[in-house]
Amino acid sequence: MRIIRQRDMIRGVRARWRKQYPDDGRQLACGESAGDVFARLSGLDLETCSAADVEEIIGNDTWTTAACSECGRSVPDVVTLGEARDSEIEVCLPCIGRAAALAQKSDSL
Ligand SMILES: [Zn+2]
């Protein structure tokens, strides 16, 4: 179990982009090459830039948010569960809170 914050996703965006698009010459649907996008990402200070800065370069928020396995929303922060069974899922903080409340309620019955 660990928490992944949006800043963690932002900090890792260049490495993840490089892993997904190792070929700088690959043309993307937006008309830019993968290398063009990487170069623009390289111009960001990943410690201080906003998620919107990254999203403007990439064209969507899938690199700065995670999908909650419980509610399905795209969210900035998640907790991972399931590592011991090698089937990790990501759950948003409000859903974690609801799960804890449910556990406490069940506890008092
Ligand atoms: Zn959720």
The first-to-last residue Cα distance is 27 Å
Number of strands: 5
Total number of domains: 2
Count of individual helical segments: 5
| Shape estimate | elongated
Proportion of beta-strand residues: 5-15%
Mean pLDDT across residues: 95
What does the largest sheet look like? 3 strands, antiparallel
Radius of gyration: 17 Å
As residue ranges, the low-confidence spans are: none
Structural class: alpha+beta
> Helicity, in percent?
40-55%
How is this fold's topology laid out?
Blueprint: E1 2-4, H1 6-11, H2 13-20, H3 34-42, H4 51-58, E2 66-67, E3 74-75, E4 78-81, E5 89-92, H5 93-107
Antiparallel strand pairs: 1-4, 2-3, 4-5
Helix pairs in contact: 2-3
This protein binds zinc ion (ZN).
Textual characterization of the structure:
This protein has two domains: 64 residues, no CATH class; 45 residues, no CATH class. The two termini are 27 Å apart. The protein is built from five helices and five strands. The longest helix has 15 residues. A three-stranded antiparallel sheet has the order 1-4-5. It has a two-stranded antiparallel sheet with strand order 2-3. It is of the alpha+beta class. Helix 2 runs antiparallel to helix 3. The structure holds zinc ion (ZN). The site of zinc ion has 8 residues, from strand 5 and helix 5.
Short description:
It contains five helices and five strands; from the N terminus they run E-H-H-H-H-E-E-E-E-H. It has 109 residues and is an alpha+beta fold.
